Task: structure prediction
Amino acid sequence: MTGDPLYLDGVDLTDVGIMALKVVVAFTFLLVATMFMVWFERKLISDMQNRIGPNVAGPWGLLQTFADGVKFFFKEDLRPENADPLVFRLAPYISAVTAFLAFAVVPIGGSFGDGSSGTVTIFGRETYLQVADPPIGILFLLAMSSIAVYGVMLAGWASGSKYPLIGSVRASAQAISYEAALGMATVVVVVLAGTLSTHGIVAAQSGGITRWFLVSSGIVPFIVFFIAATAELNRPPFDLVEAEQELVGGFHTEYSSIRFALFFLAEFMNVITMSAIMVTLFFGGPAGPIFFGMTWFWPTIWFLLKVLAFLFVFVWLRATLPRLRYDQLMHLGWKLLIPLILFWLMFISLKELRATYDWNWVVTYGAAVIALTIGASLLVAALRAGDRAYQEELEEV
Amino acid sequence: MGYLDGFKVTFLKLFEERVTTEYPKEKRPKPARFHGRHVLNRYEDGMEKCIGCELCAGVCPAKCIYVRGADNPETAPVSPGERYGYVYEINYLRCIHCDLCVEACPTEAITESNLFEFSFTNRSDAIYTKDELVVDDEGRPRRQPWELWHDGDDLGTSGWMRATASSGNPDYQNRISWSSELGYGVRDPEIGQYISDVRDEADSSEDQYPSADSGNHH
Result:
């Protein structure tokens, strides 16, 4: 793990050019993909509701998002009197910029199988097909998804209006609840891969479907990650943040014009980024069979197809599931996902430790079961004590 | 798999026929008793049916009809009988197309057509007077510049479109038809109002009133 080979022999002008090219390509790709995603979601959800959906702007309505964007640009930009001017302006950019940045560490191509290390050659230089490969890639992703909550939180707070505030409070509570599960599901992958670098994680999954962390981590971390990611994205069925029936529009109620468009953009961009992260963590990133020629081409296609499958599932979820109640949301997050992934994380860690140090099977798992039994008994005793105290309190009243 | 059944439902919807249509491009056949804009009918000798009794104005829940009756001039009577509708106005910014006026009318003077695609650029256009409402010499509704007409929309304006049965009897005894009418677009008399009769009529009426692009379904 030495990082991007582009910088190994010092940095010259070509390297800077390649870097700039990668940034521009990733930026454009993400913008176009977001445009496509908005259209895709609207079209798919209308198909699932027996409607026709957007079909006027461009072929099959493909330019609908573009038309909406142009409209947003020319709308009046309103700011409520009570709003905090600076924060109100800043919030949409926090959302949008973090959505862009998170995508920078996702490897979108490169062949990883058969001893090749996922590099491609551009202008005679070997490099990774990702904008950046910091050694702390996964931490960077988690950091960006946490900072994105600030965009929502500050937008709601700075609007100086009650519905946005309620929406943003819900958002922060939800994000804190689910980030724990999200983070621990990621840690399982990190334990298995032995690296925080996204490139390293993809490389560790090369060599067939059985090597994908989806399988080798036992599916549970993926399911937890997927549910937590949906909550993190504020997508249905976890869209309490902008529950239209209760909160008008949630945190972006007071936003209009291009600022609203930025939130909208960030939301859909986050969906794409999160799908890409799931593909990277659990589905081997760009891994897939390479049929003929163009070895750099097929991995990218596989990557895009996998992301597309996730986008479909996100829309499918939205079409199918009703919104959770707030207590159900908290129940699912704290009482189900976190204990489950905590247990799984310990189990996977133990398994890895045993494999690394070649501990005895019986001793290892026997000790684990004993420890778990003691822990569980203590927990049950504590719960009973709490329940008793509660009952006594009830009787006093 | 109780929790996952819903996913199957939404997924299978992808392959179903769409229930919505591209409205301005594609229009569905309207039901035979569609409530569109009104017309004031005339007898086959050209006399107006309206007798200025103001029952329609009285029953109107939206208070959108204004009628003033007057005595027929002896030399040139407008309607058969004593009185006629001297002023007749309907404000379409208020009308809810409930058809109660049609129910109330004792002479079948006011009926509703299939026309509903009309919008105005000023409020005075929204008030239809006798000039706009009374059918022309052939019995056609008068087309206004702001109205969008399609083939068959102006047909079937004449006729008793009561939702209730006369004398409480769902059969029209002895096949009561409506009073005679200027020739254009006269609807066949309805024989009964039992569900089976209505269904039969609805089936046959689709051919009777062809709508624009009615065959253009997905």
